[in-house]
Write the structure tokens for this entry.
Amino acid sequence: MSFVFFINGLVMVFFAALMGVVALLFPDTSKMFGEAALLTGFMGGTLAMASSPRTEGLRPLHTFLLTSSVWMVAALCGALPLYAYDLSLADAFFEAMSGITTTGSTVMSGLDETPRGIILWRAMLQAVGGVGFIVTGIALLPILKVGGMQLFRSESSETGERELRNATMFASATLQIYFALIVICGLLYFVGGMSPFDAVTHAMTTLSTGGYSGYDASFGHFDSAFLQWTCTLFMLFGALPFSWYIRGLRHGRWKSEQVTAMLVSLAVSIGALSLWLMITRGEGLFDALRLVAFNVISVVTTTGYATTDYTLWGPFAVVAFFVLTAAGGATGSTAGGAKAMRWLVAFRALKAQIRQSYAPHRVTFVKYEDRPVAPDALSGVIAFFVLYAATFGVMASLLSFFGLDMSTATSGALTALANVGPGVGDIIGPAGNFATLNTPSKLVLTFGMYLGRLEMATVYALFAPLFWRELMTAR
Amino acid sequence: MSFVFFINGLVMVFFAALMGVVALLFPDTSKMFGEAALLTGFMGGTLAMASSPRTEGLRPLHTFLLTSSVWMVAALCGALPLYAYDLSLADAFFEAMSGITTTGSTVMSGLDETPRGIILWRAMLQAVGGVGFIVTGIALLPILKVGGMQLFRSESSETGERELRNATMFASATLQIYFALIVICGLLYFVGGMSPFDAVTHAMTTLSTGGYSGYDASFGHFDSAFLQWTCTLFMLFGALPFSWYIRGLRHGRWKSEQVTAMLVSLAVSIGALSLWLMITRGEGLFDALRLVAFNVISVVTTTGYATTDYTLWGPFAVVAFFVLTAAGGATGSTAGGAKAMRWLVAFRALKAQIRQSYAPHRVTFVKYEDRPVAPDALSGVIAFFVLYAATFGVMASLLSFFGLDMSTATSGALTALANVGPGVGDIIGPAGNFATLNTPSKLVLTFGMYLGRLEMATVYALFAPLFWRELMTAR
Ligand SMILES: [K+]
Ligand SMILES: [K+]
């Protein structure tokens, strides 16, 4: 239990260090970042020193508490400088949660004139949140069988447990690849004409599939085919399983059902929507492909950059983007959403189920990556879908209760839960902004992002009385 | 295989007899109904006599084929008089499928002036479809473990297999109760001031949770609190498990988790929406309760009558009705939708799954009605939810591709799949009509109602090549 406090203390110290970096780089915001750094660092340091780093006696139970609290503390730390800058408490909390969960929905407008220190801070939150999500999943949560967290385990065991027995080693490999991808992406952005600052911050929010931009026009600010194609590619890179990179780079084995499924479904969606755009709006092939590929990949990878308001492409596009929002990237990546592997496993379970009924004499296994899926992994996948649907329904009802119209309420609920960013409609669509929503709606959405990033079950467990009884008796 | 043709032949003869009844009762439409009866009767009779009633060698496989074909043949038979009357081929097929599946969406306007023979025919389709759904599930499909059809089995086994070993006996008890409820409801309608014709046709479409009315204003045509409360009650009766009535009447055991869950969630929804209506529109308590109870129960039981355009109650009401559409009635009733028992089982599985992760030393069973749920029943429930979500997504995308706006496309897909009837928005909302939709959209919706009524898996199996290979080798 004391270990939970210890880690939270370290997280605060880490965020204090990041604030310090911003304070040093940008004189115009150095006072607020400096003060926030001192406050956070002092509190975090005290907490860490007052508690114990001993991990003995840690049980799955504690991991729930650890994960939930670390992400909440990170959001609060992230909110501090934003609150000191200009935002209301609810807005700062919303913006920081949106950053750390790599959702990328923003309540800030006038980004082009916002101090660059704030822009860097938002990018930092996403960069940390993105890799934090992978590392949380891979290194910290293999004991969990819940929700889909165990899917990380299957991803990482895929890579050959012998070589990567050490979770720390695996986490460090992930960090290296993540960092390398950000650097390459940033260099290409620079080559393509971005300023060094834009290149760095946008590379951070691209690979983290976060989608914060330094400009109100989002990535549409950069009117360059080269930059847009680069971004398209690197958003995709951020949403592929990092264990897949590690295995591929070390062993040359690049075959992955999940990656194949993602690429095939992306190709189909991009093809269909490009055709739609060419027919209904008379776009040329290459323009249509560029527009569609960027925006589809942005939504499926849950990045949420936009180069254009695709909700103006007609009702088919609107519904298609709504459906794509639910798809999500790959497990073990920075992306949110339901994830390709869950859809794969669910559809195979379904097919097996139907086949079983008309051909009961045939033995049917549900397989994934050539191995049978364990029953508890299967029920984890299912639990996730039911939680997803139910949470979506409750959130949409609450949002509409607080006065949002139907498109805004439903797409807002979905975009928060899947950590995508933009919704549908005039208010929160790709051309809009979350600023004008009322405070209760913002709080619902903030909690939705938190639930989505922690894949729900981790948070819901904290609401079970039995959880706390178990925790009390645990030591 | 020959048995499948035999039953389809009988179904056609049965529909011919119904057409004959209409022809005898209403002189103004007797020619078209008479001709349709002769044609259908001749074809059905020939088919039945040319095939064999022998049931030996029947396998689960054949039951799929039987169910799918019977419902398709019934819809085609139902469409014949409507086509002969006035409707286009697509419209007649839509209207008949909507009738036989007890969906109740209509493409016909000017109902008040429509010949009463046609109005009776629509009511007959729903009355037959409603009880047909229960009997299909209980008597014909206990061998199926797919989708949720096996849920009927658990409902019927609940009633004590010893007494009701005979499926025929069970089906006849169901028919008796169904008929008795229609008679009581019709009498109350008559007492409340309806004409005998209105009382009969509306009792038929109330208990079948079908929702066809003889008037453009739907049940709102009858401006009587007594009639509306009667209807509210009997819609609910139609959506409760018929096995529950049988068990209750025979053994006095009325305890049922599913019924309790339905009543509790109805009470909560009605309470919340009444409050909303009282606050936002200043309605009095009793008026609010009557309005809300009628329309909520109409949607949850998937009847789809409307007394008012509840989509004008503001965004919270719209989203609430959207969510309620997905809820559905009880298994083993005439209602469509996901069904209360599936939600119950899914949420318990979920809770068990989460609990398992933080308290792995505790053994957790998923129970329903005090008995553990078998793993294959559990995966049937799950398969259903995934199919439901995926089919909904594909249908909504197709509808929007054919030019419907987002609200119409999404609510249209859901209302067809759940066999509810009205959607949301100006076009297909409770005050609207499906007439103005284009033909491709109507076909998508027609197929959606068919899928929804057969709980999807039965139809999807027919698309598997293995199904046909198995069928070929079966004899
Ligand atoms: K995002
Ligand atoms: K209905």
